[in-house]
Specification:
By secondary structure, this protein is an all-alpha fold. It has two domains: 1-107, no CATH class; 108-171. Helices cover 75% and strands 0% of the residues. It is built from six helices and no strands. Helix 4 crosses helix 5.
């Protein structure tokens, strides 16, 4: 075995640096969450001040601030993006931008470049995408069939009731 590159220059290290450089703040949803959080902080502090004025109890005012704080809201969005990036990387997909995850959810067509990966890995990835698509398609079809079945059952019951009313009116 011959080592061609030092650890810092290896392909694995370059991929690790790429994953570490993903900025979830590039996503539209993260920017939107940050904008909402600004207003939530103002509202939180205002309600806490009103609570302090109304009750004179500092503990209640602090409790309002703690409960109303947008920390979880602000932290959950980038955390979800980074979790998606990590999950994609486990399946062999490297994401350069947090916004790409958001755009991926709306994707209808995917173009793959197989210049750097082996054909076997490309086949595995394509098969994984097809399997996920097929599972989602089947879930949608099953849900549509269940909804249609419920709709038909409801209509049959209404018709049955109407016919029962007609029978009682005739006799």
């Amino acid at each position: 075995m011959v080592s061609e590159r030092v650890g810092e220059e290896s392909s694995i290290r370059r991929m690790a640096r790429l994953i570490e450089s993903v900025d979830p703040g590039g996503s539209r949803i993260v920017r939107e969450a940050d904008r909402w959080a600004t207003w939530m902080v103002v509202a939180s502090l205002s309600v806490a001040a009103l609570t302090l004025i109304a009750t004179g109890d500092v503990v209640r005012a602090v409790s309002v601030t703690v409960v109303f704080c947008p920390c979880a809201f602000v932290m959950a969005t980038p955390t979800a993006i980074m979790a998606a990036v990590g999950n994609l990387s486990r399946h062999g997909v490297l994401v350069k931008d947090g916004g790409a995850v958001e755009r991926l959810a709306k994707t209808d067509v995917m173009v793959l470049s197989v210049s750097d990966i082996s054909p076997k890995r490309a086949d595995d990835f394509i098969n994984m995408v097809i399997a996920v698509y097929n599972n989602n398609w089947l879930k949608d079809k099953n849900q549509i069939m269940a909804s249609t079945s419920v709709f038909i059952d409801e209509r049959l019951k209404l018709i049955e009731q109407e016919l029962g009313n007609v029978d009682s009116d005739i006799s």
